[in-house]
Amino acid sequence: MNMHTQPQRTSAETALIDAFGDRLSLLPGDGAVMLKRDDAIEAIKHGLPTRRIESWHYTDLRRLLNAVPDFDPAAMTKAVAPIVEGSAVLAVLNGKSDAKTPAVEGVTVQRLSEKLTDGSAAPGLDPYGSDDAIGALNTAFVADGYFVDIADGAELEKPIELQNLQAGGQTHVRLMVRVGAGAKAVIVERQAGEGAALVSSVSQLVLGEGAEVTWLIVQEQPETATHLAQFKAHIGKNAKLTLFVMNAGGRLVRQEVMVRTTGEGADFKLRGINLLAGDTHTDVTMVLDHAVPHTASTEVIRNVVTGKARGVFQGRINVHQYAQKTNAKMACNTLLLSDDGEFSTKPELEIFADDVVCGHGATVTEIDHDHLFYLMARGVDEKTARGLLVKAFVAEVIEELDDETIVDALEAKLDDWFVTHG
Amino acid sequence: MPAVQDTIDRVRKIDVDQYKYGFQTEIAMDKAPKGLSEDIIRFISAKKDEPSWMLEWRLEAYRRWLTLDEPTWARVHYPKIDFQDIYFYAAPKSTPGPTSLSDVDPELLKVYEKLGIPLREQEILAGVQKTDASELEEVSDNVYKSGRVAVDAVFDSVSVVTTFKKELAQAGVIFCSISEAIREHPELVKKYLGSVVPTSDNYYATLNSAVFTDGSFVFVPKGVRCPMELSTYFRMNEKNTGQFERTLIIAEEGAYVSYLEGCTAPQRDENQLHAAVVELVALDDAEIKYSTVQNWYPGDAEGKGGIYNFVTKRGDCRGDRSKISWTQVETGSAITWKYPSCILRGDDSSGEFYSIAVSNGYQQVDSGTKMIHLGKNTSSRIISKGIAAGFSQNTYRGQVSAHRKATNARNFTNCDSLLIGDQCGAHTVPYMEAKNSTAQFEHEATTSKISEDQKFYVMQRGIPEEEAIALIVNGFVKDVIQQLPMEFAVEAQKLIGISLEGSVG
């Protein structure tokens, strides 16, 4: 994953390589899957990415990943209540999927361990390129997860909630979802747990023609966990994907979003809020490929940085040569509330087609003094006024989701965070 | 607006294929052997009659350079450069150190006339030949009124002549070639050379430190407002040579200077390397304005030949309330790779960067700026306009960062790209790093083609398509053109017209 020969392996690199040797006999997979695992661990043997690798410029994984816990197969954890009541819950507990899954009309669920064993999951296991450390890590170690198939035309009334709950140690999970033509669904991806775990989680979504999906990622790892996640999606003809990402926890977090429009009329929306506190590092990196003509995308990311937190947003929009009439807009706004915090952003446009409208904007600032004055002049004390303004700043993004139950559920999560970190 | 035919003619004249400065001149040259080694560096240093500390400085840079790898992160592609196949020193054979224009080879002066830089006429008109001091004063009064420009002409590896020296000296301004400065003002050179771009800075800056042959030196003492625009005109002529110039500009407390730089080269099939280093130092309340119109040979329509322009330019706002402003119009070079930067060290200092980068044919541009906010209440402004046509790749890459102690840092960045044709690419890669909560950074970027609405609006008023596009493009770059000194603004506008030839439609 790195052209430079590393002088010496870090303890984390050694621990990962050793763990692979120990785990190998326990990992499910046919020949094809095992070959991919071997390739993936080879990539890790070349060294974890450093800041010299452009896509990891602000998250030097080699330096930041300083401890890799052992696997803890005996640890127990329980599924949690879904954020939207009545959702069908599919939980992966300490890296293992549940054999019993709720029955939902139009939805077929299979445990990923079965698909690894019979080799049918193999084609999706390739990392995204030589810099894809998360993909490689996950491919090497993934043991379980779910494969969810939503039939053509199925319109789900209630969300499906995929829970990845760690119990310390290492957890490597993959969630694969295929949404058939014309189907409609809301899918919630919960990432949480209790221990100082190392989590790698890869979600893969394929949207058929005219499908409409809202996917919510709610990440609330404890401040001791390392969370390395990836979301990959292909959006078919006239299909619509709204992805909402909320990061509100974790010690070292990297959430990658890799989306490709594969059919004309595809529409992608990304809305994200990063609530950063403590001595943590959170990185959201998006690579969006407009690969066909007549597709649109908008991305809005809002960040709140407190304490000694460090935040990163990298967003790259690639417009391929034949992707004429692309319309892409990206915005990243940050409220930097502490002098010890920092935020780095790199919004990139790579454009090879001429008949496009693309733009991006980025701001970093503190709370507007005029706004603060406005509230305080009306008798609101400074602390409350600041709280109101910060909350309004992020809630604006949540409110764009047009489903009321989801908006309420996410705003409740937001309130929780402000209670503990306000 | 000129008539259509006029536009077409004008545009044709300045086509990529008909690069107007592509002529070459037969001038007897004095060259060092090809290749790079410690001996060559000793040769250059000896040729320049340099003191031993300078030679040591060069050798140290060379030894460091040997340990470095060529950087590959920029979005430019080119075959590996063979540094042993380049002449690192080429100078017109001439009487050693011409002191006045009359000593200069007339062939050389003709070159500059052809380039539209009539060195002789300018001096004669200004009456510099008169040596009487009282008359000189009279002359300098005229100079203030007519806004003349003092020129340092650099031909391949050496500075051939510097005009208006005496008058500038009267104001206390030192304007000469850097070789001369090393000999005449070693204390200043020692103090400032390498203090902004250290010898260890990057691959090409280190190479430059080892082999630089000439360039300009400007020193504006405390409280002096430089009485005229200063300018350096770079010309690469010899085959297989690299040009490594070094420019050092120092503005002491309260001083002001405006400096222009222009560059051209003959049309050749092989690529030539130009690796310059420019260092600016602004002390308390000083202001430096640095403008570049870069029109190196861009290669032919098939992408053959052209200049590799790998330049390190950096300004240090060392003093409080100092200001450095970069303005660049980039139309030439096969590959441009440069990031004129400002280090905002002093409190209340400010940096500006205005850029127009036009690429056509197979040109590759990776350019932008860095604004490093270190002092309190510092501000910076970046306006970048990229226009890509043909098969070219045009990248804006910029960094804005506020360090922990940089309270109230303020930045505004705007970079727009215009695409003409579907075979070219426009890319924007801004880096924003805020480590202070009082920092206020704004960045906006857009990419689009000329909208049909805009074109329709202009055309329905009876303006033909070609002119309509020229009008819209000029409007697009207006923010930057306005920052250029008058003489350059006109030239720049023409250049933009030329560079876009063939892309209309």
Secondary-structure element pattern of chain A, one letter each: HHHEEEHHEEEEEEEEEEEEEEEEHHH
| Strands in their spatial order, largest beta sheet of chain B | 4-3-7-9-12-14-17-20-22-24
Percent helix of chain B, as a range, is 25-40%
Radius of gyration of chain B over alpha carbons? 22 Å
Beta-strand portion of chain B reads 25-35%
Task: Estimate nothing, just give the exact number of structural domains of chain B.
Answer: 1
Helix content of chain A: 10-25%
Shape of chain B: globular
Number of strand segments of chain A = 19
**Number of contiguous helices of chain A:** 8
Report the span from N to C terminus of chain A.
Answer: 40 Å
Specify the overall morphology of chain A. Answer: globular
Please compute the radius of gyration of chain A using only Cα atoms: 21 Å
Treating each run of at least 4 consecutive H or I residues as one helix, how many helices of chain B? Answer: 13
Structural class determined from secondary elements of chain B: alpha/beta
Can you put this structure into words, describing what you see?
Chain A is 22% helix and 39% strand. Chain A has 422 residues and is α/β, with parallel strands linked by helices. Chain A has one domain (11-368). In chain A, the strands form two sheets. Chain A has a ten-stranded mixed β-sheet with strand order 2-1-5-7-9-11-13-15-17-19, with helices on one face. In chain A, β1 and β2 (96-97) form a beta hairpin. Chain B has one domain (24-450). Chain B has 13 helices and 24 strands. Chain B has helices spanning 4-13, 38-47, 52-66, 106-114, 119-126, 133-146, 165-171, 178-184, 186-192, 203-211, 452-459, 465-481, 486-499, and strands at residues 29-31, 90-92, 149-155, 158-162, 174-177, 216-220, 229-235, 246-251, 256-264, 271-274, 277-282, 287-294, 306-317, 323-330, 335-338, 341-344, 350-359, 364-367, 370-373, 379-389, 393-402, 410-420, 425-434, 440-448. In chain B, the strands form three sheets. Chain B has a ten-stranded mixed β-sheet with strand order 4-3-7-9-12-14-17-20-22-24. Chain B has a six-stranded parallel beta barrel with strand order 13-15-18-21-19-16. In chain B, α1 packs across α13, α2 runs antiparallel to α3 (52-66) and α3 packs antiparallel against α10. β19 (357-365) of chain A pairs antiparallel with β24 of chain B.
